[in-house]
Amino acid sequence: MSFRILVVTEDFRRDQFIARPVVERMAAECRPRALVEVCRRPKLGGVRRGFDEAYLRRAVLPLYPMFDVIVLLLDRDGVGGRERSLVDLAERLTTPSQRVLGAAAIEELEIFVLAGHPHARNWDWQAMRRDADVKNTHFRRLVAETGCSKLPFEGRASLMAEALRHWSRIKTLCPEDIGSLLAQLRRAASTGAGA
After folding, report:
1. 117-130, pLDDT tens digit by residue?
2. H-type helices in the chain, by residue range?
3. Which among 67, 12, 10, 13 has a CA at the least distance from the CA of 35?
4. Domains recognised in the chain with CATH numbers
5. How far apart are CA 111 and CA 75, in angstroms?
6. For 111, left (φ over 0), alpha (ψ -120 to 50), or beta?
7. pTM across the whole model
């Protein structure tokens, strides 16, 4: 039986090119035949909706009963405590038939590309990790220096594909977000969610 995972992000149009491959890679470590999709409807339109429990219960979760696991993968955006709030929200949304997991990318999803991409290997990792606007600073620099600025969605798909070739580096550099979500996913896979 397949294991179905839905990834909910702030803006699927751009985020899907990072979130889906990352969660697919995690799922491969937990459940090799997992199916990963990104939530396209409704479009959250920002982190506020991603933390709105009533909205998620009313407008998102009822549309996806066929998924075993829902992953809320949002940006931390420099807001301390957002990781814990997201995990707590996910626990409240979990039902007997559907597990909800939560993780906050520190500080934005684009950090996963930077962690694994060889072009950024010698950049100041601590500065990137602390930058609450890493998408508009370091990620845009990567886009420009790799010639991806004219590609759809600033080359997120090709940049992430290259970064994933260095998955162990991503896991090592991003233990608070990648490590946390991977541990949650392993627990969900082992406890029979979707079995």
Report:
1. 999 999 999 999 99
2. 12-30, 47-50, 53-55, 82-93, 110-116, 125-130, 140-145, 156-164, 167-173, 180-190
3. 67
4. 4-110+167-190 (3.40.50)
5. 10
6. alpha
7. 0.95
